[in-house]
Structures are given as structure tokens and as C-alpha cells.
Specification:
- Two copies of one chain form a homodimer.
- Chain A has one domain: CBS-domain.
- Chain A is 39% helix and 21% strand.
- In chain A, the strands form two sheets. In chain A, strands 1-2-3 form a three-stranded mixed sheet. A three-stranded mixed sheet of chain A has the order 4-5-6.
Chain lengths: 154, 154
């Protein structure tokens, strides 16, 4: 079993995509995260739903937990403003690492070793050519776990 | 909207549960992670699928990527041995933090602030009584994102 056989489609957005639209996409399809591609279509980062929650909550509320308790729901309508007019790229943490990228010919064990080294919930599968990186799909940790258990007869 | 209204059931296992059974549970139900409870039933850790993949892959393969490429699939049946006879507790990283725990009366914004502070994909909701901690359920980041967007009219 090779990475190209394990790769599946996964919702992705661009660093230039609208942040509010990306948050809605996550929320509506109950996606725990999105793959973010850079301007050239190459994997740039994984954007977890928890990061979107972090962007929605005003900084002063994160820093002072007692404030969160006293802000009532009337103010909730202000939350969306944190995303409106912003790009996905602006929502990424500054230290967001690039997602691990496997070669289409990598074995399941190579993908697993890559995932284990960087503790990533997913690995992108991409073909590197002289024209750039062509994304084939994504392998999630739980999908890979399923395949490894099957292969080991468990 | 309070944490008690947002909490939903979530698959959990005990630190004493069989690791292979836990991995199968994850794989079969495509769960990106499990909530791990300690001996008293209190939230102890979040066990992501990527950690289970890490446990399955022999240490020497993680350390030497070139080895992963040359180990053929005949050896895959040995992978399950890393889990067989072990407990979930033994699969947790040593530095696994306890999951954040919200009070049932916390507001959605308090839960969001808690999630944002610790960058957790989920928050456990539990009632603390003199008899111990009683788990009501879990709020995932994507569920909370959905609620916050709804509340803000987005």
C-alpha cells in the first residue's frame, strides 16, 4: 500500500481565502481542521478549528478569564467581526509549521514514521515536479491507523 | 448557552483499557481522538490517533526514515504487537496534559477562552462535587465554532 493509494480528498482553502467563509465551511461540515495552501497551491499549514475559536475570542477575554463570564450574549454578535474582512493567512499562528508532505510512492510505514516524527494529525501527499508541488490528497492519522491495523491483521 | 447545553457524548476509554481495543475503536469509528479517563473516571488526557500511529511504528523506524522504506509489508503483522497486551495509559506521551475541564454553568465564551488558552481540540464538561468529578460530556472546537458563529449571526 502506497501513499498515492491512501490519499483522499480533503477540504482545503488558500491563505488568501476569506476567513469567515473558511470558519463556516469548518462549522457546517464539522471538520476538525482545514488544509491551507499557499499562493502556488502548495501545502502551507493545517488550520485547526481550535485556532478559529481562538481568533474569534477577543484577546483581553483570553487573558482575563473572569471577563468571559460577565460578557453577555448580546455581545456575541461582535465575535464575527474578528473574522470578517480577514484572510485565512491572517488567522494562522505565526509559528504554524508546514504540514508534512509524503511522496506518492512512500509506503504506509514511511507515512506513519513521518506522521510520528512530527506528531501531525494528517500528512499531505504531493508529487514534486519541476513545475512545483501537485497535491494528490491527504492521509489522516485515523485513516492510517485503520490501514496499519488491517495490514497487521488486527 | 451554557457548557451543560453544549456538551455531547464522546467516546472515552480508561487508562486501564486495552490499547489494541482502543485503537480499533478509533479506527472503526474514524475518531480523531479519544478522551482518556483515570481510575476515578476523571478526565486524564486526550489520546489523538497520531499518537496511536506513533506507538505502532517501531522506535528505530521513526529515528531512521530510510529504514521505513525497506521494511516490506510482510513485517506489518508485527506492528500490532506494539499495542497487544498494553494499556491505554502506557500509550500516552509522558508529557500528555490533562484536558481542560469546564464547569457546566460556564458560558460558551468562557469555554472558548479556555479552549483558546490551552489550544485544545476539545474541552471536557464536568461537575465537581465532594465525591469527585462527574463527566457530563465534551465540547469539540468545531462544535463550539458552530455555536459562536450562530450566536454572532454568521
Amino acid at each position: 500500500m502506497r501513499a498515492r493509494d491512501l490519499a483522499v480528498d480533503y477540504e482545503s482553502v488558500s491563505v488568501d481565502s476569506d476567513a469567515l467563509a473558511a470558519a463556516r465551511l469548518m462549522a457546517e461540515h464539522r471538520l476538525p481542521g482545514l488544509l491551507v495552501l499557499d499562493e502556488r497551491g502548495e501545502p502551507r499549514a493545517i488550520l485547526p478549528a481550535s485556532q478559529m475559536v481562538k481568533v474569534l475570542v477577543p484577546e483581553y477575554v483570553i487573558e482575563d478569564p473572569t471577563l468571559a463570564a460577565v460578557i453577555d450574549e448580546k455581545h456575541a454578535d461582535r465575535l464575527g467581526r474578528a473574522l470578517a474582512g480577514h484572510s485565512v493567512g491572517e488567522c494562522l499562528p505565526r509559528d504554524a509549521p508546514s504540514p508534512p508532505v509524503a511522496d506518492p510512492d512512500d509506503t504506509a510505514l514511511e507515512v506513519a514514521a513521518l506522521m510520528a516524527r512530527v506528531r501531525s494529525p494528517l500528512v499531505a501527499v504531493a508529487e514534486k515536479t519541476k513545475d512545483g508541488t501537485h497535491l494528490l490528497g491527504v492521509i489522516t492519522a485515523v485513516h492510517l491507523l485503520h490501514e496499519l491495523l488491517e495490514a497487521s491483521g488486527n
